[in-house]
Design a protein that fits this description.
Number of helices: 3
Number of strands: 3
Distance between the termini: 39 Å
Radius of gyration: 22 Å
Strand order of the largest sheet: 2-1-3
Order of helices and strands: EEHEHH
Length: 82
């Protein structure tokens, strides 16, 4: 079940609540003094996700074939130098 973060509009207090997705709308309707807080999500080490990743020649060939079969596509500089 997802964890939602809420903030009380009057007091500024924040708290987390675990509930089913189907419970979210009724909870909001019952608690108009609360607002949902949007949180950023980290999908891993940002260093590993940067352009410094190295791919083998087989993967480079696959990318090149995809580019050739996709009309109007452009390989950006970082993908063409994989």
């Amino acid at each position: 079940m997802p964890t939602y973060v809420f903030r009380n509009k009057e007091t500024g207090e924040q708290f987390e609540k675990i509930m089913k997705i189907s419970e979210l709308d009724p909870f909001r309707a019952e608690n108009p003094e609360l607002e949902t807080v949007i949180q950023s999500v980290s999908f891993g080490d940002s260093h590993k996700l940067s352009g410094s990743r190295k791919f083998d020649s087989g993967f480079k060939e696959v990318l090149q074939r995809v580019h050739e079969k996709t009309p109007g596509s452009q390989l950006n500089k970082s993908s063409s130098q994989l």
